[in-house]
Every structure is written in C-alpha cells, then in structure tokens.
Backbone:
C-alpha cells in the first residue's frame, strides 16, 4: 500500500477508535508536515521565533485535541493540518503584534511564492493575509478551500478538484480568482 493509502487506512482506524492508529500515523505524515511548515516559514523574517518543528508540533496538538474531527483521507488530513498551521501562524503574529503595539516592527509573513507571479513575490503580513482570506470566505468559501488545499496543504490542482468534488477547470478558475483577490487585498 502506498503512503496515501496507508494514511487513509490509519485515519479510518483512528475514527473507529483505534488508539494505536495515531501512533502509527506519525511517522507517515511528520516529514510531509515538517516540509510544509518549513515552506511556510521560509518567507518569515530572519529572527522568527517559530521553527518548523514547533509549528508542526503545535498544529499536531491542535488536531489531536479536536473532538469530532475525523478526516476521511490523506487530502482531508493535510487540508486540516494546513489550516491548523495557518491558525498557529496567525495566533503567533497576533501575540507578537500585541507585544509590539508601541510602534514596533510589523510581523512579516509568509512569502506567497506559489500564489505570486515572479514580479509579485514578496512578503505578506500574516494578519493581513488572514483578514484577506476571511473577507474572501465571506464572498466564496470554496475559493478559500482551494487556497488552503493548494497553497497550505500543497495539493496538486487535480487533488484539489477531487477533494472539493469539482472539475479541474473549476478548481483552476477558483485558484486564479482567489489569487487575484488576495493580491488586490494585500496591496
């Protein structure tokens, strides 16, 4: 069984109450989650206090402590994990901003290289990104799911379409509209 099938099988065992399944899941997903976290933090300021390991561990704890959350498969799991990592980054930025309200430096955020065109690539304020995603969600929640799956979870466009049960063309259009919306909102 490939990693995807093994992960899905373990998730099903977890939702059925198998306590050992979570322990078995860790070695299969940790490296992938760590790579996602490293990618998120690559665009952070040099003195950022969160490491990829800390980001993964905090997101893992949040996922483990959520009652009633049982991802159906690998894609669903990584989408949830990506959302939790985003929440950890936003919470971290809020704490930092609160500590620096006396005019300190703004929290710089994720470089949205996979959202950006070469001329647009730069750092984005984490809180501004979160606010932009919240505004977009009020208009069209599916477009935010596309961003979360594509950018934060690192899924391919085909996987995004499959996860959302939409065509690849619709997923691609949603991705392009969401990117345009975010660029406008963040300028």
Residues:
């Amino acid at each position: 069984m490939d990693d995807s099938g093994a992960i899905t099988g373990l998730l099903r065992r977890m939702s059925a109450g198998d306590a050992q399944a979570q322990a078995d899941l860790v070695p299969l997903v940790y490296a992938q989650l760590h790579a996602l976290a490293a990618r998120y933090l690559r665009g952070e300021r040099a003195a950022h206090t969160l490491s990829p390991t800390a980001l993964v561990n905090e997101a893992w704890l949040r996922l483990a402590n959520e009652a009633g959350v049982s991802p159906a498969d690998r894609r669903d799991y990584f989408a949830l994990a990506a959302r939790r990592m985003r929440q950890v980054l936003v919470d971290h930025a809020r704490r930092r901003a609160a500590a620096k309200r006396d005019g300190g430096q703004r929290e710089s955020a994720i470089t949205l290289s996979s959202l950006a065109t070469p001329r647009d690539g730069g750092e984005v304020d984490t809180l501004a990104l979160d606010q932009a995603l919240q505004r977009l969600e009020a208009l069209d929640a599916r477009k935010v799911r596309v961003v979360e799956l594509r950018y934060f979870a690192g899924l391919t466009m085909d996987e995004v379409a499959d996860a959302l049960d939409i065509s690849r063309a619709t997923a691609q259009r949603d991705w392009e509209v969401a990117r345009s919306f975010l660029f406008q909102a963040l300028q």
In short: The mean pLDDT is 80. The chain is about 70% helix and 0% strand. The chain has one domain: 3-186.
